[in-house]
Each structure stands twice: as C-alpha cells, then as structure tokens.
Amino acid sequence: MENTMKKTLLTAAIMTTATLAIAEDALEFSAVDADSNGLISMEEAAVNEALLDSFSALDLDVDGNLTEDEFAAFTVASAE
Ligand SMILES: [Ca+2]
Ligand SMILES: [Ca+2]
C-alpha cells in the first residue's frame, strides 16, 4: 500500500516536471514585447532566433510588426 502511494507521488512529480518544461519552451507575447506597445518589432523578435527566422512569414500585413494574432501563429507552429 505504501509502495502504491510512493509510485503515485513519483508519477505526479514527473508530470509536474514535464509541464514546467513545456512552459519554459513556450514564448510569451508579453515577454517578447519589451516596450509593451502591443506589437513585436523585428528588434524585439531578435531575442528568439526561431522567432526572428519566422518574422517575415508571420508578419502577414507586412507592416514590420507582429500583432498578438500574428504572433499566435508562431506559438502554434512551434508547438507542433
Ligand atoms: Ca513592442
Ligand atoms: Ca504585422
């Protein structure tokens, strides 16, 4: 009975660690938007190499900034 409880705790610990790892990988819009103006400029995107590489593809209206909607496409694509 005690072993079962230890197993359950161990499983819970592993799941918690996995969840934290995913959270670290996810890029938050607010974290990239350094000046909090609601847009990610190319300079701000430069903090993440993958984001900078995808910048022109994500900037659908080609105004040189990523809105939260445009940035959301990157978050989804990188999670796949
Ligand atoms: Ca900004
Ligand atoms: Ca744009």
Automatic annotation (TrEMBL):
<feature type="signal peptide">
    <location>
        <begin position="1"/>
        <end position="23"/>
    </location>
</feature>
<protein>
    <recommendedName>
        <fullName>EF-hand domain-containing protein</fullName>
    </recommendedName>
</protein>
<feature type="domain" description="EF-hand">
    <location>
        <begin position="29"/>
        <end position="44"/>
    </location>
</feature>
<dbReference type="GO" id="GO:0005509">
    <property type="term" value="F:calcium ion binding"/>
</dbReference>
<keyword id="KW-0732">Signal</keyword>
<feature type="domain" description="EF-hand">
    <location>
        <begin position="53"/>
        <end position="74"/>
    </location>
</feature>
<dbReference type="Pfam" id="PF13202">
    <property type="entry name" value="EF-hand_5"/>
</dbReference>
<dbReference type="InterPro" id="IPR002048">
    <property type="entry name" value="EF_hand_dom"/>
</dbReference>
<dbReference type="InterPro" id="IPR011992">
    <property type="entry name" value="EF-hand-dom_pair"/>
</dbReference>
